[in-house]
Amino acid sequence: MHRQAAAITAAAAGVLETIRPAPASQREQHELAELLRAAASRLTPGWLGAPLDAQSADAPLGGPGLPAFVRVGVAQPLDDARFPVVVPLLGTGHLTVDADSRDPRVAGLLQAVLLRLLAAAPAGSLLVRGVDAATEGELFAPFAPLADAGLMPPPVADQVGLRTVLAEAELWVRPTRPTDTRHQRHDRTLLLVIGSLPELTEGEDLARFGALARTGPEAGLHLLVAGWPPPPLTEETTQPPLPRSTMISVRNPYALVGDPPGGSFTTPGAQPPPAGLNAPVFLDDAPPPALLDRVCRKLAARFHADYRRTLADLLPDPPEKLWTEHAADGLSTPVGHDGDRTVTLGFDERTPHWLVGGRAGAGKSAFLVNVLYGLCARYHPEDLAVYLVSFAEGAAFAEFVPAERGPGPEADGFLPESEELWADGEAAEGDRPWLPHVRAAGVQADREYGLAVLRELDAELDRRTAAVDPAGGDGDRPKPPRILCVLDEFPVLLAEQDAVGAEALARLESVARRGRTAGVHLILASRPAPALAPLRDRRDSVFAQFPVRVALPGGADVLEPANDAAAGLPLGAAVVNTAGGLGGPRGATRGHERVVRFPDPHADERLLAGLRHRLWAERPPSTPAPVVFTGYLAPPRPEEPSVGPPDPAASARAAVPAPRAAAVTEESAGTGAPKSGADGAAAGGAEPVGDTTAGDGAAATRSAHALLGRVVDVPLRMAAVPLDPVPGQHLAVLGPGDAGAEVLDAAARDLARQHPAGSVRFVVAALADQGRAVADALGADLARRHPVDRVDGAGLTGALEQARPGYLVVFGMDEWRREALPPERFRAVLRDGPSRGLHLISWWRAASRFVAQLALGSGPEPTEAPGSPIDNLVFLDVPEREVGLVLGRNVPWRPRPGRALLYDRRTERATLIVPFAARPRRRTP
Fold it and tell me: Which residues of 621-638 are buried (b: 16+ CB within 10 A; e: fewer)?
């Protein structure tokens, strides 16, 4: 191709050679213009040189080879003398314009040149990457149909995107390979089109353009850059003209075209030295929108014509038979096609884990969906158990679990009204069928949930290791099912250097190393994650346990740096490598690596829905529905009992047990080892509520447990605080927002639900305006079943003297004044109240006030922490530093909406919870 371009350039120079000296008359200039028009028609036939506003709608697309020259405009040396201006580009060099896409003339030129090249090149042979910061992608909007074909992904508009594009181009060029071998290594050409650079682009990134320009043409890389050279704001941003480029300088209303690389528009030996085309050039206008849209759609359709596969091509044959394969020696499923050959990947001791990478929109979700349906159609639910965790925003993996019937997530990522996905693993009647292989799924999950999944897998490996017969024989013992855990966007779990990240990495390494021989397999999937580069470079990196690497477009970082097989991948394609990402000599057969095409599983929704329903309908009768954690949903509150007449015997003893709540046995906040036994029960476990032996008052309150929400854990257990008849058994909610009032409201209502009507007294006080409406509604509702006293700050003192068992529910207790509530009385309540069935549950808006007031009420006895008189603490939107001030110790925690930190002072256990949804308020007419 390079030799062909050189020959054409020489022929054009020959035409110019015949005109010596320069024409002196208008007749000679007209003759020269005619000769140049003829030369241009030979250099740029069809789409490359024809006026686009007159181009026929039936003009054929594509050609036998990559176009070498392209038209950029019309020169007009005289009013009535014109000729097309063509410049060499593909196979020769680059093209720059000194103005960017904010100038409509430049935007039109870029669109016209790009359309000409795409229409004239063989289908699929020209890949385009766009950058346009100034117009936010409007420059490339007409080319959107090409995105689905992978020929031209959506343009980038910021510095991060620019660096991603430059990194892909550098991988394409690979300067470490000898120059004389590089030009043959690609059967496609990569064109970078820069409409405008991001503001404050750093000099280091600008210098990368020069390096690419010098070595790009031999590797099939070319640059079309508007706004070059960039403004010389600093010494670092001052850049020379791009090497090997034709420069266009925009004037008003014309432009000047410089000499092409290695050539000249003037005759040989001309003096003074060449300075470009000696004629004003009027740049081509933007193509007609209808023409541009038609060409792009035809190109996309043509590119897809050679791969018309569907998910059915990856499913078992015959398709009507499910679960025909056995998992004893491993798992396997087709993942795509290399030409007519089906490519299969497996999970076994040789290839236990996969690493999947690709940029946003590269088809990562589609690839994983194909794999999951392929495996679940081949293996019985008793042979394969699946755990799915997605840390990405959105509803990844939602199709595999019972459907939510409420509205989708709100803009802030937290939806307090929806509750269906929290239904204790039970799918409601009429829900979407779910895959029976899925045991647990996390959608838009917290890092702590991902850690909980790894803990569960690590514990399962402990059980499997302990069950192995030391003598080497398993007898007739059935083999446990193979486990596949998919962690999507897993860098979120490891990115932060905190307790959660450190333990997650340790657990991940343990599962990866031990799972190889125990039938526990991992798929780690993500977009490019530079933060993990140091971890990848470690000699003993956990990623060494992942021999299978799947690189989607933009996912070259899962391959070894010397392996450029993923450069320029179109959408719907992936590099499948089973040697840890290692490459090999260019042109040599790589038995460990193939480029596969894979289908869009959602292209045939009827097929997908039918398969999912068959898998669900044929599940074993005892198969439980998957337990689903949905990060943007809040759990629903327990149902409140209907109002009825008070029980005459209720004041004697409580007889109706509260619903059982599972014990909190692990520190989801990563502050300690799992605990069980007595400590576990104290941390929020709930045995069925029954009688106590601590006296009449304690018996009346029956050691109730206040339910606050759900623990962020795989089993999705209730978060409960015990209110036993021992000193310190009170609850304090700390947080400045209205969420604190809602948590207190939920706790009080749950306590009321556990007691027979009329058996316990509630004292409700609102010491601050914030939360007063919640307190009013709570008092009114509780009064329908139990005696309720509404008091103000002054009345709270008298309420402390009540002899009957009950609950003091105080909103805005940080407004408490020492004069109204003497410290000695407050201290007596905290110490002696639980033994007589009296518990304080309170909301404090300021942690500092809580510390100060509790210090007043703590008396002369030494305490471990300022808040020690109250054992159960809930933190909402309280910074980690203030949490440490309250507790007297450092507890890792990151406050965010919809999450709370539950701390049990007796066991020193910190647990991340999701508070119950806010209670809908009655609207006033």
Answer: eebebbbbbbbbbbbbbb
What is the distance, to the nearest Å, from the Cα of residue 511 to the centroid of all Cα atoms in its chain? Answer: 23
Q: pLDDT higher for 23 or 453?
A: 453
CB atoms within 10 A of CB 328: 9
**Residue pair 87/260 in contact by the 8 Å Cβ criterion:** yes
Question: Pairing relation of β-strands 718-722 and 520-526?
Answer: unpaired
Nearest Cα neighbor of 572 from 190, 151, 162 is 151
Render 602-614 in DSSP notation, one character per residue: GG-HHHHHHHHHH
Q: Is the pLDDT of residue 473 over 70?
A: no
Instruction: List, for residues 475-522, the tens digit of each pLDDT value.
Output: 566 789 999 999 999 999 998 889 999 999 999 999 999 999 999 999
Sequence-ordered alpha helix ranges (H) in 56-202: 104-120, 145-149, 159-173, 179-182
Query: Closest Cα partner for 684 from 714, 715, 657, 660?
Result: 660
Residue 918 has pLDDT above 70, yes or no: yes
Looking at 424-552, list the stretches that DSSP marks H as alpha helix, in order from N- to C-terminal side.
Answer: 447-467, 491-494, 499-518, 533-537
Q: Indicate whether 1 pLDDT > 70.
A: no
Query: Could you give the CA distance from residue 439 to residue 512 in angstroms, rounded to a whole number?
Result: 19
User: In this model, does residue 924 exceed pLDDT 60?
Assistant: no
d(C-alpha 4, C-alpha 243), whole Å: 21
Q: Domain spanning 2-304 has what CATH number? A: 3.40.50.300
Other C-beta atoms within 10 Å of 677: how many? 10
Q: Helix or strand or coil: residue 118?
A: helix
List residues bridging with 126 in a β-sheet. 189
d(CA 283, CA 112): 10
Give, in order, the Cα–Cα distances in Å from 186 to each of 22, 91, 189, 572: 43, 12, 7, 19
Q: Closest Cα partner for 394 from 631, 169, 587?
A: 631
With contact defined as beta carbons under 8 Å apart, do 195 and 163 qualify? no
Collapsing DSSP to helix, strand or coil, 44 comes out as coil
Which residues of the chain form CATH 3.40.50.300?
2-304, 311-465+480-630, 677-913
Surface-to-core class of residue 540, CB atoms within 10 Å of its CB (0-12 exposed, 13-18 middle, 19+ buried): exposed
**568 vs 422: CA distance, rounded Å:** 43
- Residue 7: pLDDT band by 50, 70, 90 thresholds? low
Would you state the pLDDT for residue 819? 58
User: Could you tell me if 451 and 670 are in contact, meaning their C-beta atoms sit under 8 angstroms apart?
Assistant: yes
Whether the Cβ atoms of residue 553 and residue 531 lie closer than 8 Å to each other: no
- Measure Cα distances from 888 to 32, 342, 444, 669, 847 in Å: 90, 61, 33, 17, 13
Q: Which CATH code fits 677-913? A: 3.40.50.300
**Could you give phi then psi for residue 348, rounded to 5 degrees?**
-155, -165
Q: What is the pLDDT of residue 105?
A: 96
Gap between the Cα atoms of 218 and 48, Å rounded: 22
Q: Among 3.40.710.10, 3.40.50.300, 1.10.3660.10, 3.10.310.40, what is the CATH number of 311-465+480-630?
A: 3.40.50.300
The C-alpha atoms of residue 636 and residue 202 are separated, in whole angstroms, by 50
Side chain identity at 413, as an amino acid letter?
Answer: G
- Alpha-helical regions (H) of 758-874: 772-782, 793-799, 823-832, 847-857
Q: Checking DSSP bridges between strand 438-443 and strand 69-78, what pairing results, if any?
A: unpaired
Quote the distance between the C-alpha of residue 665 and its chain's center: 29
Long-range contacts made by residues 394-400, C-beta under 8 angstroms, separation at least 24?
394/444, 395/443, 395/444, 396/365, 396/443, 396/444, 396/488, 397/441, 397/443, 397/486, 397/488, 398/443, 399/369, 399/432, 399/608, 399/612, 400/372, 400/434, 400/435, 400/438, 400/441, 400/626
Banded pLDDT at 235 (limits 50, 70, 90): confident
- Please, is 642 exposed, middle or buried when counting C-beta atoms within 10 Å of its C-beta (0-12, 13-18, 19+)? exposed
Residue 12 in this model has a pLDDT that exceeds 70 = no
**Average confidence (pLDDT) over 677-699:** 35
